[in-house]
Amino acid sequence: MRHNFGAGPCILPQEVFKQASRAVLDFKDGLSILEISHRSPEFEEVMAEANKLVKELLNVPSGYSVLFLQGGASLQFAMVPMNLLPEGKTAAYLETGVWANKAIKEVKNFGKANVVATSKEANFTFIPKDYEIPEDSAYFHYTSNNTIYGTELFTLPVTKVPVVCDMSSDIMSREIDVSKYDLIYAGAQKNIGPAGLTIVIVKDDILGKSGRAIPSMLDYASYKDNDSMYNTPPVFSIYVAMLNLNWLKSKGGIAEIEKENKAKADALYKEIDRNPLFKGTCAVEDRSRMNVCFVMEKPELEKSFAKFADDNGFEGLKGHRSVGGFRASMYNALPITSVHALIDLMQTFEENQNK
Ligand code: PLP
Predict the structure, then answer these.
(1) What is the CB < 6 Å shell around ligand 1?
(2) Nearest residue CA, atom 6 of ligand 1?
(3) 281 is in an annotated binding site
(4) Which position among 185, 205, 343, 353 has the lowest Cβ density within 10 Å, counted as fewest Cβ atoms?
């Protein structure tokens, strides 16, 4: 049995992949999901169902729209300031990693970014907590889970300014209060569906205030006003997302998956803290449940543990190239049995060292 601890793209349950592959061959009357018209009642139903599932699972209040876009979270780095930052105004950004940094870079094309705090000097191993968000900021932007470094921000900073959040790598993994946000975006590929698809949840009344002309495909209003079908939507990705969100609902929804995700993370961090061969890389209070980063106490053992893991069917444990060490990504689809298997592996490795 293989255990996939990879960071993606698109780690989904086997049963979702199976359902999706069947629909490629025969979705309706022998036609593939890829070839039916996106304006057909059948696809409109898929789109409506996917939209409804996002709203239901995240308890999205009225006054918000759920949009399906393309371009990944990276396009949102630019679309957010293009749509929400009036010319010459400043937006506040919390710099907690590479993705936040890339988001900050895009702002200069539209206005100014005020980096209210950063943990760059510490290679992003913690989330800064002591900072102020100026009240005249157009919005405050942060990344809820730092996929590369393994930190996660569980408590939303208190602020009066509109809050924008990149939730690419922890959306649908734990309960959130959508009403506290003005815009949430996420590349779909961790807990939702195939890469490229992008979900945006936006408070309707923050749109249309940038004062600039926005190309239609980059204007949230085009998606909102056309049920995310201003142009041909990524039909297959939306279909797979719908299947996966249905899987999540059948598991008991986000409250249930959150319990499981917490149990998975608690178990693995407990072993990392107990086992003298391993150590976590991040501040304990900021540890991510989705991406668990760790190194060996003795770096010379790294290669042999990597080989041991590989020989025993563990995939994707290598840390991101900018951090090194190991990273166990534990998205919704990863069963807790895989986490227990990894803990056993670490304990066996320890025993072998002591022989
Ligand atoms: N933001 C976060 C937190 C991510 O983890 C990623 C990719 O993994 C991105 C943004 C970039 O997403 P995309 O590749 O969809 O543009």
Answers:
(1) 72-74, 99, 143, 147, 166, 168-169, 187, 195
(2) 168
(3) no
(4) 205
Q: Does 232 belong to an annotated binding site?
A: yes
Type of residue found at 31: L
Q: What is the pTM of this model?
A: 0.97
Beta-bridged to residue 287, according to DSSP, are: 151
Would you say 189 is a known binding-site residue?
Answer: yes
Which residue's CA lies nearest to atom 12 of ligand 1?
A: 73
One domain for residues 110 and 151: yes
Task: Give the catalytic positions in this structure.
Answer: 99, 166, 190
What would the two tokens of residue 137 be?
């900021």
Give the range of the structural domain holding residue 141, as residue numbers without chain letter: 14-250
192 and 265 co-located in one domain: no
- What contacts 24+ positions apart, CB below 8 Å, involve 279-287? 280/150, 281/125, 281/149, 281/150, 281/323, 281/325, 282/125, 282/126, 282/149, 282/150, 282/151, 283/125, 283/126, 283/127, 283/151, 286/126, 286/127, 286/151, 286/152, 286/153, 287/150, 287/151, 287/152
Can you tell me the ipTM of this complex?
A: 0.99
The tens digit of pLDDT for each residue in 202-259 reads 999 999 999 999 999 999 999 999 999 999 999 999 999 999 999 999 999 999 999 9
